[in-house]
Amino acid sequence: MIEERFAADCLGPVEEAVRRAAADEIMPRFRALTADQVAEKTGPHDLVTVADRGAEAHLAAALTALLPGSVVVGEEAVSADPGLYAGLAGDRPVWIVDPIDGTRTFVRGDEGFCTLVALAHRGELLASWTYAPARDEMATALRGGGARLNGAALRTGSPAAGAPLEIAASYPFHITPAAKRALLRLRTEGVRARPCAGSAGLEYLEIARGTLDATVFAWENAWDHAAGLLLVAEAGGAHATLAGAPFHLAGGNALPFITARDAETVTRIRRLLLGDRPTS
Predict the structure, then answer these.
(1) Do residues 129 and 147 make contact, with C-beta atoms less than 8 angstroms apart?
(2) Helix, strand, or coil here: 248?
(3) Long-range contacts of range 24-33, CB-CB < 8 Å, 24 or more positions apart?
(4) Helix or strand run (H / E) with residue 120
(5) Is the pTM of this model over 0.90?
(6) In angstroms, rounded to a whole number, what is the distance separating the alpha carbons of residues 40 and 46?
(7) Tens-level pLDDT at each residue, the chain (280 residues)
């Protein structure tokens, strides 16, 4: 597949584009936003800033120039035109972009936000970039080529035997009653669940580096998950939807879905979410 060959060659150029977008559009506005530069989209928990829009436009131009004929599915463009999401199911290579993952965190002036980019073709993830500019952390993944953080190999490892599972889970905003019931089943012995810290992308990075055991998320916007799913997979981790299937980028997944340091942990958490009782 020509896109797979391209993915390996583009790791450096895309990293450069991501860093440039952050340097030009995001970091000059970090802790310098004015009230008129922040707006609500669907509500107070769904914010957009001039930095989000500027960084996405910057990346869309740079990425499509690197791969002519490709398309961009970005959070802010889809917010304006939901029909663009269908590009995930098309035949053209697609760049999946979240210009600022953790916008509320960014608006508060905290460092826990990142820029997420993934390259996919016909539903298969080929490469990904997770960049936390305030921390100068760049994580990359290449399908079949491993995962790295600032050049060093990442490995998830497995949770410590007998220790409580450390899980980051969805906030209870905008989720179905069924998903909420499933998440409540994490309140059990042997599990320490907390809300997602604000950036899904950085939670995936914590799994990839072995400092978080799992995530359980009840929403499926591809820009929040694509980069992290490949990062964790290439670091040795696993994921599954509530139905036990792989996550489908174009949507229609059984939620919540689980990503974890190993397949055994995915299975264990999935059984909890389904209400299965452990057997002795």
Answers:
(1) no
(2) coil
(3) 24/54, 24/58, 25/51, 25/54, 25/55, 25/58, 25/99, 26/51, 26/54, 26/55, 26/99, 26/100, 26/106, 26/115, 26/133, 27/133, 27/134, 30/106, 30/109, 30/133, 30/134, 31/109, 33/107
(4) strand 114-121
(5) yes
(6) 6
(7) 556 778 889 999 999 999 999 999 999 999 999 999 999 988 777 899 999 999 999 999 999 999 999 999 999 999 999 999 999 999 999 999 999 999 999 999 999 999 999 999 999 999 999 999 999 999 999 999 999 999 999 999 999 999 999 999 998 777 889 999 999 999 999 999 999 988 999 999 999 999 999 999 999 999 999 999 999 999 999 999 999 999 999 999 999 999 999 999 999 999 999 998 554 3
Provide the pairing of β-strand 124-132 with 114-121. Answer: antiparallel
C-alpha 150/C-alpha 170 separation (Å) is 28
Helix (H) or strand (E) holding 104, with range, is helix 103-108
